[in-house]
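Example 3.2
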Amino acid sequence: MRFRSLKFVLPAFLLVGAGVTFGVASGDSDNSKATVPTNENAYVSQVAPAKAHATQTWLSVCPATCEGAPRSERRAFVKFTVAGVPAGARDVRLSLDLYSARTTDTSVRVHKVTGSWSAKSLTWNKQPAFGDVVGSRDGFTASQVGSIDVSSAFAGNGAYSFALTAGKGAQGVFQSSRASAAQAPRLSVSWTDPATPTTGSLPFEMPSTSALRASDKKVYAHYFTPYPASLDNQEPTQDYYSRNYLNPAGESGKHAAYGGLLRDRPVPRGPLTGDWQLQDMQREIRDATAAGVDGFTVDVLSTTGAHWTRIKNLIKAAETVDPGFAIVLMPDMTSLKDATPASLAASMADLASSRSVRRLADGRVVISPFKAEQQTPQWWGEFATAMTKTHKLGTALVPVFLNFSANADKYASVSYGFSSWGNRSPNRQGNIQSDIAKAHSLGKIWMQPVAVQDERPNQGIYDEANNTENLRTSWDNTISGGADWVQLTTWNDYSEGTQFQPSANSGHTWVDISDYYLVRFKTGAWPRITRDTAYLTHRVQFAAAKPTGGTQTKLMTPRSGTNAPRDSVEVLTFLVAPATVNATIGGAGQSYQAAAGVQAKLFPLAYGTNSASIVRNSATVATVSSPNVVRKDFAAQDLGYRGASSGRPGAG
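Structure, written as tokens:
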């Protein structure tokens, strides 16, 4: 997000704790900040269940076998009072800051306390009830402050009470308020003031997460476990993506014939310390939540090994970062085709033990198998029976078909809803409304797939998406057709080039554009455009061009029935009022008058760089420059569209 220097002083909102008042920082950012000291803090010990520790200068947490002794668990409790966060504040963040006396490898979990307590009377035998995890951290550095994000606990001004437990590792020793003010537990609070002029990345104001989730309309993003944010926690220039997936010679040359396995990757990051796999999953959930996504439909490729571990990590990340973020279980029947109803039920029940796994209001677990027609309706009936009788779990089956029309009637008796994998070209989106109507006529909900594009080097095919037209058309037909749920296909399947996830090539472009339609789908009203924004989309080579170097011999051709390939640069504008758009396409300048609202303008693709600016009343109000150069010479064919945004300069 871009921040604008403020030309006025923010009001002196206050946060109060232990009788000390802290003024809000103002100046170069539109993010207001303050620190809240702890009101009360103490710990309890299982080995001394009747003893209070209100006078100790430290807080102790450790797991049930603390320092090798069984039944010696310790827990810590802290209180704060938050006041002065203004109504309508945006981007409110809470961070619990703990000063480590000698803790290093302790795993700390933070729970929101639901009962009352006083430090003077707090003991193991008299400790308050507390709820689910609202934040966690694995690993601390001695004599330094370690922060734990507990933003999911924010519910407005008032009293906040947290319990600290240890999930694993050694004893955790943190300084209490009896040590010193500088080392005492504190709550760091930040927000964007509602009166602050917004300079956000989107053309409109995104509704709050709570407002979006209140809608019965749900939007899920298909999560593909082979492509997490990082595969080895190495520097991006030498990590597994760079060495093996993007490099045609990678993985001992097995991808050389088609120019490498992938053409894009998740946004690169530097190495992390601690449990980096979990941290990556937590970041992905934050990104999806910020984009208005209700949860992930996670592709269950196997029930053992690395993919299974990543699913477990994804669920754990949802539990710790955003308990309201739903994980929809999607067993992939192309790879689980040999599973029995009983064995699949056992695996799904294992995952469904988490509260983060999606359930209906009546408690049924949503199971949405990919290529459900791989098994018969009778097979799925046996699966549901096994879930109920063996695991005491009701199921709501929402099969995803590769051929919906051929299977709808046959599977109606065992299904709560229907979906299909869908198409990726504008001319193949005309059946959306009839599919929705068919599902509704059978009394089923419909989950509509919405996609950007599709590019598969290893399969030698691609779909012509016509820049952003496929994305916009599929969303428009989904909304007008009355779909109940949406599945963004996909969040991160880079081998099919269908990713919405912020990526190296396109930044946030696809998910940002999609958000305009997502808000309309979930709220019933188009969001008001408040910021002039331009998106540039184009390929980096002509569709018919062939590699001029390298080892690629297997080329992609258009999938049968797709739109005819085209070579265009699209300028997609979201304008608060009419304006002039000055576009530079391959070095040549062109101008046109753009209307208020949403408008797409096409230009013939040309070699070189592309940019555009929005001008109104002789003032430039937005600019976008594509970092993706259109080249005549290239080693590997890449027919995926790339995007750039004026709202996120330099990041796509």
